[in-house]
Amino acid sequence: MKRRALLSATLLVAPVSGLVAQQRPLPRIGFMAQVPPSAALQPLLDAFISGLAENGYVVDRDVIVEYRYHGGNSERMVEQAAEFVRMGVALIVAPSTQTAIVAQRTTNKIPIVIVAAGDPVGAGLAASLARPGGNITGMSSQGVDLALKQLELLEEAIPAAKRVALLLHPENPPHVAGYAQLRVAGPAMGLKIEPIPKRVADDIEPAFQHAVELGCQAMIVFDDAVTGVHRAKLIERSITARLPAIYQWRYYVVDGGLMSFGPAFPDLFRRAASHVARILRGERPAEMPIEQPTTFELVINLKTAKALGLIIPPSILARANDVVE
Q1: Residues 35-45: what's their mean pLDDT?
Q2: Average pLDDT over residues 145-157
Q3: Taking a C-beta distance cutoff of 8 angstroms, is the pair 140, 129 a contact?
Q4: Integer Rg of the chain from CA
Q5: What is the pLDDT of residue 139?
Q6: In DSSP terms, which residues pair with 28 in a beta bridge?
Q7: Residue in 224, 185, 227 with CA at minimum distance from that of residue 208
């Protein structure tokens, strides 16, 4: 009788234990995105989701991703980071330098994965790329080092340009560091670099007016949340002001910008997903090196070049990874 009772109890307990395991809540990821997915941006999220799956985490089966959209609004970023802390997410994905800084100020406990921070060390997000030392790891976009290459491409594409506008946020660390490089390199190339400050969306129109008044013949756009969210307005003003511009990410060119040079953005999102998976498995961000991009791409929009009255030199077209016609 005792053995029969014990066997019955075991049969009853085993399914209940299995049910409890099945009902254990899935880890949640808080994702601080700029805007809802569009035709240009969906490939980035697809790359992130694919990267999670490649590392054993299928969305809605093994992990839940909570997306929030800040639209470039810094106050909304603060609200989102605080919401994720209240939700008790397992980690926060902060794609840009600005979102990472906001998340870092909000929590030093929850791991944060960056995707495209231009200068994580200079921005105070990490002690070093090799050993971040805090709760942040992920991918650097190496944006500061790209400024010189962008200037060289712009000079080659528009040899008549001698005065170049630099649209930047004057308090954004990667922007400040990039300007410091161009301020030295520009004159050595026979170019005058004109820094044009922009902090919020309402600064875009006056910035273009100022660039035109200064006699600028081309523009470098340093990327941030405001330029990303309002890129349609940027592109439109670039064309109407006849001010050819180079950007960092290909989605500007897909949406009508002249040219871009920078890391392959989908690759950054895919590789950032591997950091997420490693943290979910128990690794500590402080000991996970921040990786740098290995794949870069030059993208050119010939339709926009025609609208601007430009003929892109064959030497540049031959090096382009993609040409939009």
Answers
A1: 77
A2: 92
A3: yes
A4: 23
A5: 96
A6: 64
A7: 227
In the predicted structure, residue 18 carries a pLDDT above the cut 60: no
- C-alpha 34/C-alpha 186 separation (Å) is 32
Say which residues have a Cβ less than 8 Å from residue 303's Cβ, sequence separation at least 6: 256, 324, 325
| Distance in angstroms between the alpha carbons of the first and the last residue of the chain | 83
3-class secondary-structure state, position 1? coil
Structure confidence at residue 118 (pLDDT): 83
What DSSP state is assigned to residue 314?
H
Quote the tokens at residue 293.
């991009």
Cβ–Cβ < 8 Å for 262, 115: no
pLDDT at 165 over 50: yes
Domains by residue range for the chain, with CATH: 26-141+265-294 (3.40.50.2300), 143-263+297-324 (3.40.50.2300)
Token couple for 279: 């943290």
119 within 8 A of 194, measured Cβ to Cβ? no
pLDDT at 39: 65
Portion of the chain with pLDDT greater than 90, in percent: 75
